Amino acid sequence: xxxxxxxxxxxxxxxxxxxxxxxxxxxxxxxxxxxxxxxxxxxxxxxxxxxxxxxxxxxxxxxxxxxxxxxxxxxxxxxxxxxxxxxxxxxxxxxxxxxxxxxxxxxxxxxxxxxxxxxxxxxxxxxxxxxxxxxxxxxxxxxxxxxxxxxxxxxxxxxxxxxxxxxxxxxxxxxxxxxxxxxxxxxxxxx
Amino acid sequence: xxxxxxxxxxxxxxxxxxxxxxxxxxxxxxxxxxxxxxxxxxxxxxxxxxxxxxxxxxxxxxxxxxxxxxxxxxxxxxxxxxxxxxxxxxxxxxxxxxxxxxxxxxxxxxxxxxxxxxxxxxxxxxxxxxxxxxxxxxxxxxxxxxxxxxxxxxxxxxxxxxxxxxxxxxxxxxxxxxxxxxxxxxxxxxxxxxxxxxxxxxxxxxxxxxxxxxxxxxxxxxxxxxxxxxxxxxxxxxxxxxxxxxxxxxxxxxxxxxxxxxxxxxxxxxxxxxxxxxxxxxxxxxxxxxxxxxxxxxxxxxxxxxxxxxxxxxxxxxxxxxxxxxxxxxxx
Lengths: 191, 332
What we know:
By secondary structure, chain A is an all-alpha fold. Helix content of chain A is 77%, strand content 0%. Chain A folds into 2 domains: 1-111, Rna Polymerase Sigma Factor, Chain: A (Orthogonal Bundle); 124-191, Arc Repressor Mutant, subunit A (Orthogonal Bundle), CATH 1.10.10.
């Protein structure tokens, strides 16, 4: 096996070999980003701390999942962190919905509801709303169901009474458009 | 409408992105489809606004990871076998190889000092006889620091012997060594000019048999012999553990210093080794990353340290010192 001199590749190789000091080095380089992303999405410090632990434990247990041909280790960890954060938001959202349905109306919102509310506020930001307006009505409705209600492709299809393939197509097309717009804006912001 | 920064918008849309690829929900972490452009942009945008994690989180995170997967061994770790098992298997492999040789191949030149394949195997007969004497606590072996010279009388004795008979004699001697090594394998035995344990002697013998099998295969144009990963894992752990002694043998110890050796592949692992006997491992000043099988080939002198594909981080000179010491106990 050729030993790569690329820093990311070397760190992943070391982690695969069981080198705990390599994991510590990865943590030192990327924990700020992982924690920052998790905290931004969840709006909750405790959840963010849990997500940091999950992300690095997952990487330690599954270094073979990292494909450095498709992005940097930093990008991989950021996506991993983000997905875990979204999972948390969705979990709390679902729990909150269940609690809202069963709780007396006078009961105050708990911390989970606050997390959901903060995340929803984030989503309803001005620029995002403007970008959503660029989508077709059908795409926008599919996005709304997927994001606001956390539905899967299958559930979106059922709700809209359309074939699964159509729901998948609408969501993918919407995502592709949003991704293009945002990536362009991100590049401008960076430059 | 809330006052939202651009990176918050990115974060929100990444949240949507996470919902899109599948219907796996919270079942677990999915295989990731990296969206490189977006992820890199998000990462870059996030940096200026990131709030650092609490300092105590580092130790908690690393401890949690270590409890999920023990450090020190690779993901697909092969369990190391015991030295007697490694010796037995290597004897069996070489026996198979020798049985397959043609008369022309027996006469092929295989080694710079020993010469033809038949002479090399005669040398091994001499080695096994010597090892049997070392393993016998009642025997008093004269000082024989030169490994090649020590077996020359046997090579001369077998000069006119049929190669098949040389092979048979070697196999019988090797089986006798295996039997003599049974019992307390921690007991000290002489090995040329040093004293080692029976296990260490078997490791050294295994390494020499493998090295000479490589010589024979090279001489006869055959594929190079591979040890199974259990044997490789055993060799790796023994070789790394012997680094302080190897440095001492070479007179190049580095007291109070340590090296991190990371060997890749199923036989490998990650080891922190002190660079002087009796020392405790301290914070490593160098990290050496290399392939486990290549590392073992250096140890049996079938690959030169300068031919080794290794990444060395930290004190380069210290790394070179370690790599040039690992063949200290190899004998040809």
